[in-house]
Amino acid sequence: MLGEVDGVGNFEQVNKESISAKLYGCDVRLLTLEGLIKAKKAAGRTKDLLVLPELEALREMLSETNEE
After folding, report:
1. pLDDT for the residue numbered 68
2. What are phi and psi of 19, to 5 degrees?
3. Helix, strand, or coil (residue 32)
4. At what angle do helices 33-43 and 46-67 cross, to 10 degrees?
5. CA 38 to CA 6: how far, in whole Å?
6. Cα torsion at 66, 21, 38, 62 (round to 10°)?
7. Which candidate, 12, 18, 59, 68, has a CA 20 to 30 Å from the CA of 30?
8. What was the pLDDT predicted at 67?
9. What is residue 54's DSSP assignment?
């Protein structure tokens, strides 16, 4: 477990930027798309920066879908 996620914050802040889900029968917390984007930007690694355009496009697509 992580006590802090760069770009998102401490446990309480990460908890606010997460959703509850069931994974292989276990209850888990997952970063929201916005939280994941913040964390990837803060990490700044090449592999994280390369995926940002796709994540941001997904965010835009979901935003447009929610507006309809």
Report:
1. 72
2. -125, 155
3. coil
4. 160
5. 8
6. -20
7. 68
8. 80
9. H
% residues pLDDT > 70 (the chain): 97
- The whole-angstrom separation of Cα 47 and Cα 10 is 23
Strand, helix or coil for residue 48 = helix
CB-based burial label for 44 (10 Å; 0-12, 13-18, 19+): exposed
19 residue type, one letter: I
Residue 51 has a pLDDT of: 98
Angular region, 25: left φ>0, alpha ψ -120 to 50, beta rest: left
DSSP lists the bridge partners of residue 5 as 9
Domain parsing of the chain, residue ranges: 4-67
Contact 29, 18 (CB under 8 A): yes
